[in-house]
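Let us practice reading a record.
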Amino acid sequence: MQDWAWEIAESNRLDEYLTAYQSGELTDDERFTLMEIIMQAFEDLPAPLDSDPRWEATLMILDSNIDLHAYTVWYWSDLEDELEDECWRVTPYLRRLVERHQARIIAN
């Protein structure tokens, strides 16, 4: 199964994913993979991201763990595509993180 982390993501399980991520019981590899699932779940969420407090909490997790999630932030920021209408819903938010942590993201 290619792109496993994206194929299994379910937006109705976001609370479960975030609880597992923040439990302190996961390895860095597990947290990395789970964050990919979380990003896809937010992408599939029908509600606006701005109105979901879980999205803000996720952005804070990414910001404070940028070394672990540099690739995730870079990938979902879709820097190669400059057209806003062709980006993912999460892209504008992650581009702000790229700007804030550009040196760290490029280094990773």
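A brief commentary: Residues 4-107 form one domain.
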